[in-house]
Design brief:
The chain has twelve helices and 14 strands. It is an alpha/beta fold. The strands form three sheets. A seven-stranded mixed beta sheet has the order 7-6-8-9-10-13-14, with helices on both faces. A five-stranded parallel beta sheet has the order 2-1-3-4-5. The radius of gyration is 24 Å and the shape is elongated.
Length: about 400
């Protein structure tokens, strides 16, 4: 009889254990919350890998040092997507199915994130975009995908609104890449330029990886724009500005957030003079050496003292702060759905070094849509603001 009772109790305990195991949320233990991260950790664009991810990791390490979130500490699992769509989707599958992460905070390359998006959606895994800007990642909204990075449309709106504040600017031109990344920014400009009182006098394409922009510059010069908007990657932006100076293309120049590091852009262009009339979009509070950024610069340096501090170091911090805030509000009985609900309920959230307050909602997954403009003056990056101010 006693033996039968023992067997019955053992069976009941085993059943309870199996039920508890089946109900356990992936990536959550009594002590840890496992977050996945991915990005281009190797390859030609690995500059957008660890520098960006490490900024987010610094935020997570800081909260761990303060005791964690509701008694749990953040554990990071990294995968390399190499900025390649197929490799990135495979990396995300590993994070979800092999590593069983609770949520993912990652992605700096837009095309790669778009390729991996079905994995988040189909498996109902919460995703906070690290730094990718393509609108189609988060719009139309999906329950499981969020971003605190200024989207491409927001970049375009920031540029056109700034141009409206510039004196004697009526004729505008665009030079851009022929890809979805540039089109997301251009789309906002196309939608607004007429109502802003501008005439679009020229539009030219510069191929990705181009090392000469002579023909494009000459076409633009012939159109005589008052301002030219360059929707180009950093290397091609430098090529364009170099040739614009060489061939005497006049007027003002407005660039995207891709070239926030104006000191680097000046070096690539060959001289600071090439950036004389250049303003570029930014989604940070200020340049990395500004007082507004000091606490975040110090935090990054604390956890990654050997890293070079650069604008990229701060790109992932807003998302990390938002994740932490939502995890706290989701409570100790953490589930993915509670976490998503908490993210969705974010209002006027702290973006840290980001130039915004974070706001989500049932039909809103782009948390930061405000940007500012920077310029290079006397060798220093200056936050000009949302409207034009002369030197």
């Amino acid at each position: 009889m006693k033996t039968r009772i023992k067997h019955a109790l053992f069976g009941a305990s085993l059943t309870a254990l199996l039920i508890a195991s089946a109900q356990a949320e992936p990536g959550v233990t009594k002590d840890t919350i496992k977050l996945g991260m991915f990005g281009p950790l190797t390859g030609a664009v690995s500059i957008y890998g660890y520098p960006i991810n490490n900024g987010a990791i610094a935020i997570y390490r800081a909260i761990n040092d303060q005791g964690g979130i509701n008694g749990r500490k953040i554990e990071i699992v990294h995968e390399d997507g190499a900025c390649d769509p197929a490799k990135t989707r495979a990396a995300v599958k590993k994070l979800i199915h092999r590593d069983e992460v609770f949520a993912i905070h990652g992605g700096s390359c837009s095309a790669a994130v778009v390729a991996a998006k079905p994995e988040f959606v189909e498996n109902k895994v919460p995703m906070m975009v690290m730094a990718a800007t393509l609108d189609s990642i988060s719009d139309p909204p999906n329950r499981y995908v969020f971003t605190t990075t200024l989207p491409g449309s927001g970049d375009g709106v920031t540029m056109i609104n700034f141009a409206k504040s510039m004196p004697n600017v009526k004729r505008i031109a665009i030079i851009k890449h022929a890809n979805e990344w540039a089109e997301a920014k251009a789309k906002a400009i196309y939608a607004m330029y007429k109502s802003a009182g501008f005439e679009l006098v020229a539009e030219v394409v510069l191929e990705s990886k181009a090392n000469d922009a002579t023909s494009q510059v000459l076409k633009l010069r012939e159109a005589k724009p008052d301002a030219t908007m360059f929707l180009l990657y950093p290397g091609e932006s430098a090529v364009f500005l170099r040739d614009a100076q060489k061939y005497g293309l006049g007027g003002q120049f407005l660039g995207t957030t891709a070239v926030m590091d104006l000191v680097d852009l000046a070096q690539r262009s060959g001289s600071e003079a090439a950036l004389k009339n250049v303003h570029v979009g930014a989604f940070l509070l200020g340049p990395i050496d500004s007082p507004e950024m000091k606490q975040y610069a110090d935090l990054y340096a604390k956890y990654f003292p050997k890293d070079k501090l650069q604008s990229l170091s701060f790109y992932g911090m807003s998302g990390a702060l938002t994740v932490i805030d939502a995890l706290k509000r989701a409570g100790p009985n953490l589930t993915r759905e509670k976490f998503v609900d908490a993210l969705e309920a974010t209002r006027d959230g702290n973006a840290g070094p980001g130039y915004c307050k974070v706001n989500f909602g049932p039909d809103k997954r782009q948390g930061c849509t405000a940007g500012t403009m920077w310029a290079l003056r006397d060798g220093k990056i200056v936050n000009v603001g949302e409207t034009y101010k002369p030197n």
